[in-house]
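Observation: inputs received (chain + alpha-L-fucopyranose).
Thought: call the complex predictor directly.
Action: predict_structure
Action Input:
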Amino acid sequence: MKQFIVLVTLCITTGLYAQELKLWYHQPAGATWENALPIGNGRLGAMVYGNVEKETLQLNEHTVWTGSPNRNDNPDALQALPEIRRLVFEGQQKQAQELAAKTIQSKKSHGQMYQPVGKLHLYFAGHESFTNYYRELDIEKAITTTRYQVNGITYTRQCFSSFPDQVIVMRISASQPGSISFTTNMNTIAGTTADHEGVKGMIRYKCMVRIKTEGGRLITTDSMYRVEQADAATVFISIATNFNNYKNISGDENKRVQDYMNKAFKKNFATLLNAHIAAYQQYFNRVQLHLGTTEAARLPTDERLKNFRSVNDPQLVTLYYQYGRYLLISSSQPGGQPANLQGIWNDKVRPPWDSKYTININAQMNYWPAEKTNLAEMHQPFLQMVKELSETGATTARVMYGARGWMAHHNTDIWRITGPVDAIFWGIWSAGGAWCSMHLWEHYLYSGDQQFLNTIYPILKGAALFYVDHLVEHPQYHWLVVNPGTSPENAPAAHGGSSFDAGTTMDNQIVWDIFSTTIRAAEFLNTDAAFTDTLKTMRSRLPPMHIGRHGQLQEWLEDIDDPNDRHRHISHLYGLFPSAQISPYRTPELCNAAKTTLLHRGDISTGWSMGWKINWWARMLDGNHAYKLIRNQLTPVGVNQGGGGTYNNLFDAHPPFQIDGNFGCTSGITEMLMQSADGTVHLLPALPDVWPAGRVGGLRARGGFELVNMEWKEGKLVKAVLKSNLGGNLRIRVPNELQGQKPAAGANTNPFYQTDETPPPIIASEAKINKLQLKPTWVYDIGTRPGETITIISK
Ligand code: FUC
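Observation:
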């Protein structure tokens, strides 16, 4: 009996563990795209429906966009700029906005649209009534499986988008020979994308399907295939376009599509599958996370999502966390396009916001997990986009603002437009380029790659140079400010419906960051001393942050925030995350004010906004509040009144589907477990009570440190192993005392951990400030050599 119990317990435990990294369901996707499961190799994406009698693979290729190389600057801006600035400074924001609508807003393209390729259907006649249905996405292997029975025969379909072989592959097998028969709706499709907003559509694409059968017959007609009584069949899908880069579309899609197909078609399924899994796992396996196990994990994914708000299901958190990493690996590969608003998965000819790149938060959020969750290679497409924006944005800076350097407004697309799009209320924001540039710097801070720093320095310098020319003196306060500026997508009631202002907090913070970063990069490279002096002088004249009369961090230069404002953008908290200008240890007043602002704004919001809030609460070292946001985010779409949530396939819901929330949450969970932005490697900075014990391995910290593994129990660090790739001082902050380590003294000597002094805030009222309750921490200095592994153990 005892043996039996042990065996059952073992089965349940291993069963739980085995299911941990799978999304699985008892029913097909049906007609709902957000029930289908995403696969991708960065370039080719598919949504696999798992519908039995009519299987659907909705197909995407990352360069299928409307339009062709184009620009969208409005040269009238330059002449109108002095008048617009005057109006803003004189408090006539509405008039300024009206004038800018005519002179600054783009009169050309407002961005092109990311397009679907099409749908491949497989029709299985006679499979209408089936039993024992099961469908999964295994994110450890990046493969979907659908299984069901008809007339006692078990049918299995496995599908993946191969990283090394650059085709999508679906294998169909059965438990009895000769039982696979189906037809397809196509064998080839080809086309040219549409014209849009006056830009001619010139992307040519081709999608080719081929089928390899084992046994039975394969009949090919002009437009489709028929498979009869095969033992197994493997469907190959190859897609290619003529896109080379944002200014060159002279590629040969016909040759490309053939080449991919011919190479892959020669290989057998097992060879393709093994190579795919190996290529995927070299990235995916770098991080392991365990937050505990509960019985809740035994249910299918959609049911767990429904239950999550009321039961403790830490494995749903680990699944969602690793799913974020899966999605990044699957939608962003070196040499490809960065993940857009929907990664690479889009079934609509007119997708929401064109499924392009909104660079006032969303595109950056996609890349927050990249470095810290050990997927630096996946960052590359975004970093390449920043480089390309620095090329196109140099013309925009010159033509529209008479400035040197480069800039970008709040949106871009595959053609790297940098002019202002949408109504000027949104489009006026000018800090897209500078914010994106911070990702270049971050990649350097994590890697310490000097060669990379050399190549990006001119881009950082160009982003800073734009502001050297663009900042103007505020007539009343004499600070240097951006005018016209805005705090993305929000407007204070005091400005009569205009979003225009001068010296908004986010603009100031971004200018501060790009100046500081360029100064430090120049110091690392020992270059440009005169230029960095200019930047230092100008930086000292930026407006300080303000704490307003409600105890809030001011969003605007004046104290006009509305404590009842629930806007999804809380742009002025850029300084808390992703930047570290606001810190619980270095700038406690600002951090308290940021907390007050967050409490005013509330928790429930769009998916991405909740994702950002997880990161903020983690930076404020409040793990329980961060977890509350995870709960809100892992709520079925439609339940949060006026807010987002999650679809059955664990895609983030703005709503609609927007992938940024997935990535934002993965970043936030990491920030709860380890941070490295505030002068130390901080372990377990924001652990919620629901995760008293756990393990994590593979996270990366700035300065070339890697958390090989860490274990905690009862909310306390037990042991951690860290690898130092670059050497240097490892200043570590932990929640409990360590054995035999030297307490930290003086400034951190590690050059990657320098933090610039944020100037003291101007405080209108202390009365309403919500004070952070900080738990005690211990800080140690550990000298490391390159390649050394350090073990720390709690006392
Ligand atoms: C910004 C956000 C919206 C949406 C869009 C794609 O404009 O304000 O909520 O996420 O980007």
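Thought: report the result.
Final Answer: Residues 147 and 156 are 5 Å apart (CA to CA). The pocket of alpha-L-fucopyranose is lined by residues 341, 353, 358, 362, 489, 568-569, 606, 608, 654, 658 (CB under 6 Å).
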